[in-house]
Amino acid sequence: MEKLFMTGNEAIAEAAIRSGCLYYFGYPITPQNEIPEYMSTRLPELGGAFLQAESEIAAIYMVYGAAGAGMRVMSSSSSPGISLKQEGLSYIAAAELPCVIVNMMRGGPGLGGIQPSQSDYFQATKGGGHGDYHLFVLAPSTVQEAVSLTGDAFDIADKYRTPVMILGDGIIGQMMEPVEFEQRPRSKEYDKSWALSGAKGRPRNVIKTLYLDPQKLEQHNLKLQDKYQKMKEDVRIEHYLCDDAEIVIAAYGTVARIAKTAVQILRDKGIKVGLLRPITLYPFPYDHFQEIAERIRKVLVVEMSLGQMVEDVKLAVNGKAEVAFYGRTGGIVPSYEEIAAELEKQLF
Amino acid sequence: METIDKTDKMDRVFQRPEALTKATTHYCPGCGHGVAHRLIAEVLDELGIREQTVGVAPVGCSVLMYNYMNIDMLEAAHGRAPAVATGFKRARPDLTVFCYQGDGDLAAIGMGETIAAAARGEKICVIFVNNATYGMTGGQMAPTTLVGQKTSTSAQGRMSERCGFPIKVAEMLSVLDGPQYIARVSVSSAKYIARAKQAIKKAFEVQQLDLGYSLVEVLSPCPTDWHMTPQQAVNWLEENMLPYYPLGEFKVQGV
Ligand SMILES: Cc1ncc(C[n+]2csc(CCOP(=O)(O)OP(=O)(O)O)c2C)c(N)n1
Ligand code: SF4
Ligand 1: which atom is nearest the Cα of residue B61? Predict the structure, then answer.
């Protein structure tokens, strides 16, 4: 198969198009501008629509509108812009509209910086906006994986009628790597009878999120909750050299990739270390951590934040193994030497 | 049977438009929203586009509009109707799309989306109901509240030194190049309602012709939050709002 040399951002855009996404709405922000730039030339050629919105708020509501028409649609942004989309994501989750949102995280809080970060984990996995809802969250750690997860993201969005977030960072977005685009088997046609198309020869369809009667709102929230429970069947995690490990590093995305090199170096020194890399951050692979906690001594969670995913790891491990944390923040990417040295410290 | 013969010969002059459901509205007596809904419904019927139209409801007293309109509808977040309508219209340019918004929705929280959609010449119709107050939340000051008008957050009357001046949305948007049709009408009394319908019809025709953005500002009484009887509210609107918000067409292109 042909290999193309692309940035992660461009690769995600191309993968989205190949997954049948013909509509994109967004607002410029570093480090994800290659996505809207790519879409702005490709989508009109394909008969779709690209629109540079007046803000991230407008962009997410344009996504709401196009998703309401039953189309595959996406938006992308980076941390401050993703904060602005939170109200809209809450509405989209409540209205059960499928869509894909990319967050190429940068350092925060506030305007922060433009260097890579993982400090939006809480926002991505715990709801982010108001109300009892979650996004389905996928965290690629290479450009090739970003391509395949983008295709999966659209299928998951349609399968569960839910917003899906691809959570990357400036490195995933801007790093250039050779990538292959598999010819995805045409995703099965999902039922879109709920979409709006003009009430022709059928009763009218309404897409709404208002339930003034508390009984009905509770029923609606319970229905969403059922869906979140069902999503567990799509949990994904990579176990790397975990079988005989006495200690494991837990990391996702860019950091996991760096941690893999650290694991190799430590293995060469004879240290029995493995790597657990969650690929779905929501639903979080609690069961996998629970199971491995029975047979290891310690988990070292490494993040580009001051400790967010570590809370889920602690919840999963539930005291059965020790949980340690190492984090860099502000846009600083830990090196593999740094991670290896930290792990060696944790051995005793 | 004589009576049946008579009915057969009679023309039906008043009936529920197909674009309205049978539901009874929740609007207060004397509220203008119901009239505005009916005018839109009559226009959709007359243009024969009920089955090709998608509406976007606002957050405000008319949020439940989708219970009353017999058409496909989306409910937007407060102020975001033009963005929702844009996304929908870009995905389905073959369908007619309109937004229905109050003054808080359109001219306060949603002014950014309003101006951007107008400037882009987005091919949507906006029906903008200006009742000079926030109806749903209990009659607070709106961007269109008149100077001196008492509201629950301007108990002494809106003071321009503190709160500035009411926004004339129709005039303001008509200086942009994107809009193709902009008018202001009133649903306060019968003599204005027929003209209001004509303007709404033109706004939809602009979209039928694929020309671009259209907006009709509808001056509308809110007796409840103005603390008036329906008749007092009509009088107050015509004596106070009409001089500040003159009726008429501010931009007419192609229709
Ligand atoms: C983000 C957000 N802010 C505030 C509100 C509360 N709210 C609901 S309706 C409304 C104002 C409605 O006034 P207007 O748009 O003039 O419509 P009317 O009710 O007068 O028809 C406000 C502030 C909300 N629902 N969402
Ligand atoms: S509060 Fe005002 S706008 Fe709302 S329904 Fe009553 S009269 Fe109409």
Answer: 19
